[in-house]
């Protein structure tokens, strides 16, 4: 089958013919319809966190189940599925408590580029090829844990809902599940790209009184307004913290960092009201260090927390998000700036690095 591989950091992906094995116990084979191109993919290309290479890239996909392994009750062959970056073992204490994002098997296997049994179904001859985040959707087919293939309604556009596998759910669930934004709250979102726009529209849907989009590009700030931002701040035109405080007088109830830059995390914390919390959705480099003055934490009683996939329950949250989209409550089509064949995957990353797209969809066939 055709797939896009990362063989060396800082190098373009290569389109190659590779092999995919049959699904094992608790796994399913999925024919990929489309895949979103996410900033987290770019972090791997730049080497911001270790990746076992070679690796089939892509972690935001959708498709149709072609085969199921032993012991799989759901999904079934023919089901339309969104591929989740948050599969779960359903055996550990965290899964039993409904904290699927805390599943230790995810934490153990993801850095190895493996599925739950510690191996990969991807190869080229005798060469083992790693799996990205239990998905590897830059390919014609992939094998994933059954808990990572979420059945959704068949009347939803199968290509568009690929975005729900990562970026949409990460932004929406962070607002709904982690921060629990309430009507009347004031929210600042630092970074109005693919994930940030979803945090913006979720905050608006939650009834926030003020939703402030922060970015360096006017084009992205205009998009933020379309997605529900009541105010925008161009951080290239002055200190964003001062601009936010000028708008709010006291600060915001929730701040979301959706870029992955330590200095922006600190700006987000400085924009908070006393006693409020900063949520980090962006992927910082693995060796990033945050220096926070103790007085800021003590006097402001502020919190800082990473939002891992928005503490989503994939089986419940992904179909619900698709339903909200189909009901016209969430914008997904408007997120898609470009559509292109898999062979142009490196063009998609070039557009992302130039800040010219919110999301690009790539199609393997």
Task: Describe, in plain words, how this protein is organized in 3D.
With about 375 residues, this protein is of the alpha/beta class. The radius of gyration is 20 Å and the shape is globular. It has two domains: about 1-165 and about 330-365, Quinone Oxidoreductase, Chain A, domain 1; about 170-310, 3-Layer(aba) Sandwich (Rossmann fold). Strands 4, 6, 7, 10, 11, 18 and 19 form a seven-stranded mixed sheet that branches. A six-stranded mixed sheet has the order 2-1-5-9-8-3, with no helix packed on it. It is built from eleven helices and 19 strands. The mean pLDDT is about 95. Helix 4 (about 165-180) crosses helix 5 (about 195-205).
Number of domains: 2
* Share of residues in strands: 25-35%
User: What is the name of the CATH class of the largest domain?
Assistant: Alpha Beta
From the N-terminal CA to the C-terminal CA, the straight-line distance is 10 Å
By CATH, the architecture of the largest domain is named: Alpha-Beta Complex
Structural class: alpha/beta
Helix/strand order, N-terminal first: EEEEHEEEHHEEEEHEHEHEHEHEHEHEHE
Rg (C-alpha, Å) = 20 Å
| Low-confidence segments | none
The share of residues in helices is: 25-40%
Report the CATH superfamily of the largest domain: Medium-chain alcohol dehydrogenases, catalytic domain
Query: What does the overall shape look like?
Result: globular
Number of helices: 11
Main sheet summary? 7 strands, mixed
Mean pLDDT figure:
94
CATH topology of the largest domain: Quinone Oxidoreductase, Chain A, domain 1
Query: What's the total number of strands?
Result: 19
């Amino acid at each position: 089958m055709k797939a896009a591989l990362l063989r060396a950091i800082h190098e373009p992906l290569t389109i190659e013919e590779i092999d995919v094995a049959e699904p094992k116990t608790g796994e399913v084979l999925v024919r990929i319809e489309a895949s979103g191109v996410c900033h987290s993919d770019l972090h791997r290309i730049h080497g911001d966190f270790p990746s076992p290479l070679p690796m089939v890239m892509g972690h935001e996909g959708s498709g149709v189940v072609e085969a199921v392994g032993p012991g799989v009750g759901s999904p079934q062959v023919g089901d339309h599925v969104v591929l989740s970056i948050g599969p779960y073992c359903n055996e550990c204490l965290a899964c039993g408590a409904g904290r699927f994002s805390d599943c230790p098997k995810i934490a153990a296997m993801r850095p190895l580029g493996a599925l739950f049994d510690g191996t990969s179904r991807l190869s080229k001859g005798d060469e083992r090829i790693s799996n990205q985040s239990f998905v590897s959707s830059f390919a014609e087919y992939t094998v994933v844990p059954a808990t990572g293939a979420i059945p959704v309604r068949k009347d939803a556009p199968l290509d568009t809902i690929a975005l729900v596998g990562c970026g949409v759910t990460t932004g929406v669930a962070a607002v709904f599940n982690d921060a629990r934004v309430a009507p009347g709250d004031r929210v600042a979102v630092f970074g109005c790209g693919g994930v940030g726009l979803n945090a913006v529209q979720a905050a608006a849907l939650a009834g926030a009184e003020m939703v402030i989009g922060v970015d360096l590009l006017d084009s992205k700030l205009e998009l933020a307004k379309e997605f529900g931002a009541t105010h925008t701040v161009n951080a290239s035109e002055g200190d964003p913290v001062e601009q936010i405080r000028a708008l709010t007088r006291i600060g915001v109830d929730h701040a979301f960092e959706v870029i992955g830059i330590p200095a922006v995390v600190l700006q987000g914390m400085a924009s908070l009201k006393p006693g409020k919390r900063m949520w980090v959705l962006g992927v910082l480099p693995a060796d990033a260090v945050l220096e926070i003055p103790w007085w800021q934490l003590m006097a402001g009683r502020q919190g800082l927390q990473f939002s891992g996939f928005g503490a989503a329950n994939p089986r419940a949250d992904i179909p619900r998000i698709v339903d909200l989209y189909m009901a016209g409550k969430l914008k997904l089509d408007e997120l898609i700036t470009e559509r292109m064949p898999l062979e142009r995957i490196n063009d998609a990353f070039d557009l992302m690095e130039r800040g010219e797209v919110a999301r690009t969809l790539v199609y393997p066939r």
